[in-house]
Amino acid sequence: MYLKEFEIRWNDIDANxxxxxxxxxxxxxxxxxxxxxxxxxxxxxxxKYNIGPVAFYEHMYYxxxxxxxxxxxxxxxxxxxxxxxxxxxxxxxxxxSEGKNFAHAxxxxxxMDLKSRKxxxxxxxxxxxxxxxxxAKEFKILTKTDTRKFHKMPVDLI
Length: 158
Fold this sequence. Notes:
The protein is globular, with a radius of gyration of 17 Å. The protein is an alpha+beta fold. The protein has 3 helices and 7 strands. 20% of the residues lie in helices and 39% in strands. The longest helix has 18 residues. Strands 1, 2, 3, 4, 5, 6 and 7 form a 7-stranded mixed sheet that branches.
């Protein structure tokens, strides 16, 4: 399991003086990019192949409050990957300075070709790197069906 430590900053708290829900999203994103960079899958690789990550959803579960002034850690676990690398799923846990879990998040995403603006499989060399990442015990091979498991579809205004 990958862990990244953070200090809660003044701008990370909300009107209730605890960690704001928007800060959770920022901390998860920072953790993912740090993990990818440290795993040999950095911005230069994405630029070379003209791809970028997109999030389909991030589901948050809050267990207890956390406040300004103490360090926190955010974990990352690879929960799923499609055979072509197009789809991926990460789970994050948030731990306070005593190691107590105060939140959990599930995130699913994909890779987008930045020219065509369409979802794309990973180039073989990047798929090999991504496939070599440590996998969670509950890891599964993802399919397109997994991306719609919550049955949410766009509804246009008429």
